[in-house]
Amino acid sequence: MNSIPTFSSMNPEAGLAKALGMPRPDIIAEISASGLKGRGGAGFPTGVKWNFAASAKADRKYIICNADEGEPGTFKDRVLLQEYADLVFEGMTIAAKAVGAKEGILFLRGEYTYLRSHLEAVLQSRREKKLLGKDVLGANFEFDIRIFMGAGAYICGEETALIECLEGFRGEPRNRPPFPVNTGFLDRPSVVNNVETLAWAACILQQGADWFKSKGTEKSTGIKIFSISGDCARPGVYEFPMGISVAELLKHVGGQNARAVQIGGASGQCIPASEFKRSIAFEDIPTGGSVIVFGPHRDMLDVLHNFLEFFLDESCGQCTPCRLGNRKLLEGVEMLQAGTCSMAYLQELCALGESMQLSSKCGLGQSSPCAFLSVVKHFRDELMGRTDHLTHA
Amino acid sequence: MLMTERDRVTNEIKALTDKLGHNRTALVPILQDVKRKYHHIDSFAMQVIADELGIHPVEVHSVASFYSFLGDRTQGKFVIRLCRTISCDIQDKDRVARQLENDLGISFGDTTPDGKFTLEWANCMGMCDQGPALLVNDRVFTKVTPERVHEILQDCRSAFGQHAIERKEVHLV
Questions:
Q1: If interface means Cβ-Cβ distance under 8 Å, which residues of chain B face chain A?
Q2: Backbone angles phi, psi at A306, to 5 degrees
Q3: Which of A5, A35, A83, A296 is packed most tightly, with the most Cβ within 10 A?
Q4: Other CB atoms closer than 10 Å to residue A17's CB: what's the count?
Q5: Do B135 and A169 touch (CB under 8 A)?
Q6: ipTM of the complex
Q7: CB A244 within 8 A of CB A282
Q8: Chain segment A219-234, per-residue pLDDT in tens
Q9: Alpha carbon of A131 to those of A79, A138, A372: distances in Å?
């Protein structure tokens, strides 16, 4: 299932044409009024971000589209770029008009290199239609977009690490503040938005803030694109209003017998069946759109082992809590699998996880213990005193 | 390395930096091009890049070694990256992995002695709904089964044979 009805019903170019006729503050006011929040997972209000960049004074500003979609279980941006690239580029152009930028960069992850020729062709046709270039739609506004390929690093999905990579450095996150909206790419104000956020921005300009707000909850407005995988009958990309309950979502994808779902990817939370009534929204379970379904026969320790191997591999190694903490948690999971972990040590590991959440420099280390902590909390009875390795040996 | 080969590498990197720019923002794209062409970024190439960009070669090494698609190891003409993250994992990626090792006769992280294939693990490549997934250079294969492994490798071998005669760079189309 690869089509997204709402995006398919949009008329590309209408949003941009409207934005070009509006004064800058009005564009930002429209986005702010819609309540659109960052669709990559962090949920920062897009209007506020654009406003910061618009009010910053600089000789150049940049619009960066974050297509470094690396979170395990997330693939909506791939589908958006394949099917609705025009909408994404339109969103970037509108953002450029709103903040006064002339240059846009699409940061595409190395794993998606096969999308590049298609995206270059879309950009070229937009240039021919005067939707990009020196004089966009004859409105005395200049903007163009180039594609920058990532080189295989999950951490570059973090906006400051992404900027480091663009500048030719190791993808190690910076301290924040200063934020990229003030000091971003080449120390110029830069808006870094997720692919989906930009596509929604284009839709909002076209249909209005009220249309967007008519779906979703009060604090999490609009529709969200979900990437659903794992033990369910119909994995794929879906659109659901924000605030949908886990149980309802599972009904749509044929995963009713799930014992748990991982929401928000490896850095998200593991929700057990007893909490399937909770809703997916920024005020309850926040997400970047990744939902991984675990069927009745899944061993949650195997899942944790997989996640922690991922984080160990992808940690940039810059700060100690993340570099060493993930290793310790992985060793702890291996001890649990071997049935050699004492309750006291498990408690110590949980305390370590909490320290990592507090003391890591960026989102990777702050969120990598979430899965561990939520599995220990909800599946504790399955974890201790294992003997299965004895029978297998 | 022969002097003539050094000259060739130097000239090619100079042409690249002229095209992409002599500043640091061009570093990652330059490294990507060198890697694509030579399947390896050796210390000589790093020195030339450093000279062209006016930075210390250790800076070039530090960046190259950080990114998993760059690196300073020699890779085969075809780099096979099998996704090992959760959704592909629960769709039986282990059997595909075993069959890749059997058919290539190497373990993960290694390159075949003829320099054709490198086998590597990859972290989530965004094909979670169609796993197990693998990349051969830039091309993606989804719902890979152990039986299909042989077919995928044969495709690479025939592409390589053809291009080897034409002395062109090898890429699957």
A1: 23-29, 31-32, 53, 62-63, 66-70, 84-87, 89-90, 122-131, 135, 138-140
A2: -65, -45
A3: A35
A4: 16
A5: no
A6: 0.93
A7: no
A8: 999 999 999 999 999 9
A9: 22, 9, 47
